[in-house]
Amino acid sequence: MDILSVRNLCKNYKSAGQNLTILDDINFSVEAGSTISIVGPSGSGKTTLLGLCAGLDRSSSGSVELNYVKLDQLSEDERAQVRNKYVGFIFQNFQLMLTLTALENVMVPLELRGEKNIRDRALTLLDKVGLADRVHHYPAQLSGGEQQRVSLARAFANTPRILFADEPTGNLDTETSDKVIKLLFDLNKEAGTTLVIVTHNLELAANTQRIIHLKGGRIINDEKRA
Amino acid sequence: MQLADHMDRERFIYSKKWSIAWLFKMAWRDSRVNRFRLLLFISSITMGIAALVATFSLGDNVLYEINRQAKTLVGADLSIENSRPVSAALKQVFDTMGEKRSEERTFASMIYFPKNQGTRLVQVRALQGDYPFYGSLETQPASASINFRKDRQALVDKTLMLQFDAKPGDSIKIGELNFAIAGVLEKAPGRTNLSTTVAPPVYIPLQYLKQTGLIQKGSRFSYNYYFKYKSQVDIDNIVSGIRPKLEKEGADYDTVEERKRNSGRAFEDFNRFLTLISFIALLLGCIGVAGSVHIYIREKINSISILRCLGANGSQAFLIWLIQVCCIGLIGSITGAAFGIVVQQLLPQVFKDVLPIELSTPVSWPSLAKGILTGMCITGLFALLPLLPVRRISPLLALRISIEQSRSSRDLLKWIVYTLILLFITLFTWWQMRNLPKAIVFTLSIAFAFAILAATGGLLKWMLRRFFPDRWSFLWRQGLANLHRPNNQTLILICTIGLGAVFISTLYFVQGILINRVSMTGSGAQPNMVLFDIQTDQKQPVADLARQFQLPIVQQVPIVTMRIEEVNGKNAEEVKKDTTSRVPRRLFDNELRVTYRDTLTSTEKLTKGELGKHVRNESDSIYVSLDQRYAEWVHLQIGDHIVFNVQGKLIPAIVGSFREVDWRRVQTNFRIIFPTGVLEKAPQFHVLITRVPSPEVSAKFQQAVVQRYPNISVIDLGLILSVLEDLLDKIGFVIRFMAGFSIITGMIVLISSVLISKYQRIQESVLLRTLGASRKQILVITGIEYFLVGGLAASAGILLAMAASWGLAKYVFDAPFHVQVWPLVFIFLAISLTTVIIGLFNSRDVLQKTPLEVLRQEV
Predict the structure, then answer these.
(1) End-to-end CA, chain B
(2) How large is the ipTM?
């Protein structure tokens, strides 16, 4: 059962009057519950691909079907609701809202869904990532590793069908990276979420079941691992 | 956890339901760490709202008091005024009117204090009966207001008593008769302190008027009749009954209702002007709010894109910050309104000399609501401009993808908001001015000033990009780069500081124009004394007396009082009925003071036709000359026929010429000039104009005139000028008081703009500090940046103010406009240096603390 299906996907940008092709004829599917990495050098189109798959942007041509919903046929507001319902995000620079406490940051996706009694669920998630004693701290009062752990808790808060992680360890030191990666995979396993990681860290990619290699906006290798 | 299944396809149904409570919760959460900055937004609008609430409340309070005190303003249920004695028939009607009646003659005359030989022009009010029927003549002692009517006694205005050190019981001489001072007149119905400054009132009993010898041919008297009715009587009905008779004799009437309307209208005009000044303060604050919100939202872009990633749609994101800004606007408006109530308590003190009533200051809830509502609307509209792009912030920004944002100029909503702002300003101004073209001009002027300032800012940025001085020192390059780098504040600072500069400079210039105009009139070899009511047989002896005092006879002219009876064969009634006639009805009501001569004076220039020639025979046509502006006002053309009524004798004449008259010169100027040979034998009085070299000579000459010719009145223009200056000073104080709100707002906007910019550049300064920049270097970079912004804004603002003041001088005040260089330099330096000082003061954190401390504290 494929949770993500990408067909003939192209993305062009106009920049300084020139037409730039960022992604060219991308085709792949992702099975529900699997883990997958998208790797490639800088400028290969990894993040653009992640953005399109997560419904953050519209493709120039081709289609993206996420959880059987054709994203290209939806308006921006409808895509926002799809993200809220089915998608979780982890960013390289954590992307926590600086004006909210750790607890509030985790609660936001649930609040957007209009769910009630969410505080306990958010506290449990923060406890799972080892931040039970920092729930009322603002991001500026947390270290980089702690911020990324809050980000992990937030990503799993709305029990997403699919989790997109964009260079999740890019801003962390090796030791903290290892802890965060372990936490990410543990939480993912427990929740049974599909995990799509964009990275150029091959060591991180090696933890996933499948690695798609991108170069110059095209898939040059689709490596399925045991 | 369930994996995705086909059921999900059915389950995804887009829902437009939002939780409003959550939006408020998010707005509240986000505000927690930004309280200080949000406080800055608030402070920008509080002064404007305070001024607005204060002026609205003042308007309400005054109208309430006018309604409450209207009876005491008139002093009677009905008052009738005429500039000549009423006919016997009308007098008979008057004698049957009302439950109580009172009669009064008022006229200007000289008063003489034998104790110290002081003289002064006063308004004599010769009274008979119990007037005022409502309110009272407030006197010291209180009994004097009743007692003076019984004997040869007078009530003398308190300013006169002080000026001539007089006490009750002392004697005064009016005309040829002495009166004992019964008491000090503190207040009379319907009189302001200002209205009594030129000619303070002196009350005497009417029965002694004849004995004063002041009733002579040509004397200018006002005949007043006051009536009191029983409370159930319909005064309007009575007035309707006698109106035709009153109109026929040119008499004017005043009722309590009429006075309510007139007093209210006169004050409302002034109040509207003050409201506009307050509104400008609010607009300035709103521009500050828009600038602050713009910078605030730029810093929120990341948070908004994260929210979008997490599933918030554009409208939800937009609403969170709209709610935040609206709540801030509401708090700001309420704070401003509360401050407005405090200001309202000060206003009776500010306005005490210009209002005819005692002012109480209860809180006016409708004014409070109007102020808050206006504040909310205009703040909301201005804040919408920087908030609208929030709807379009892409979630992709959270992924480090730099995307080209769609051009905001293509956003239709943005143009709608611009239109709404202009519409709101126009409607508000219209509401105040009750004149749509003026309201449009006002709105366009503000928009024009704003556009010029924005263009100046844009030009600076463009020039810096285009001609950046690469070879200059690092400090200069860094300072200049701050002006055009991304997220710079050049435009908003130039607009806010510039508009503040426009306002401060215009106020300064206008005050200069007015003061210049007054002092020009009284300076140099200009005449400064006017003697009037000189009878024909006194003409020569008075001139001789002036020569004895070695005073020059600048002008000596005859004046004949007359009315217009017919224009082109139609009398007042016929003109009134003729709907096509443009001749105003008032033309027939006004009494005209006319002279006759066959030459022009130095203040006149013939613009059309020829001055009438000497009339030798009764059959000759009489050609009169009209002041051009007067002719335009009454719609009279060359060749039009006018019939004048000179004390009952009808004189037909033809409009023969128009003259341009410089009314500002101290000289007798006339709307209508007759040729010689027509009016020489008509009842007339003469005016003599001279120049006295000192107050001492003035006093001695006045004494000599009053003692020999008590019917002659003397106006000391030196005194009038000082009264005028005092008046200008008092009105100027009121305007400065209200304009002070704009200036304070300008300062707050400047402080908040600079403070908010601190958050933007703090990281850069910290980086520079980390890389080894010294405190002095950071100081110089910041100083250069703010001096350029402040200097450019001040220059543009001053230039705009000069243009505006020139326009006001030429088209409104009809006065010359001269630029004084040093005050301009002072305004320029004051604004530029204030900007630099505030900029440096706000950067002190970066200078005094370690980079790490600053980062921990600020980020």
Answers:
(1) 39
(2) 0.85
